[in-house]
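Example record used in the benchmark description.
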Amino acid sequence: MKPFIKICGITNSHDLDYVTSLDIDAVGFNLFFESKRHVNTSDLNQLYKLVPEHIHIFLIFVNAKEEFVSECLNSFPDAIPQFHGDETIEYCESFDREYIKAIRVRQGLSLEKINATYKSAKMLLFDSYDSKEFGGTGQSFDLSLLNEDVSVPFLVAGGINASNFKEALLIDTCIGVDICSSIEKSPGRKDHSKTKDLVEKIRSFHV
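Model output (structure tokens):
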């Protein structure tokens, strides 16, 4: 099965048109107000209409109020919420929608506990830990910290680039990668040449 490729941090139609012309599976729009890649709901409404039917749409929330999440999911019924903060399992399941839970990886993380807690998730996303930011830092993490069995399928994020994507895809239960900062000119602006090159490298890799 070919790796799942998600490109996150899309903020404009120019980049969206380009990345969705490539052989990718999903795009992510960040609704966290403090993110450098934040998209407001008015702009999202326009971008949402431009996404081809075969591409999955993920909406990234970070410790958002339930009312805001519900409003967004009602407005964008085909979108899948990605909870990237400190959300509880009760919170994640409360919207009666398939969801992704992002886990920031650091020493002491109990994958056994993650397995037990988030078994209802569509997939997990393992990202690097930063005490000040929730993702999109471009920093990788020690992939050996995922050396235990993870029962829920997952993506690896955190500075995924041409030099480390193979290591990520060789981890058991890893189904793909989430790419953001390594293919940018600046936060929220994609470098199309880098994007194409990395996508093609991933597609040519066979586990």
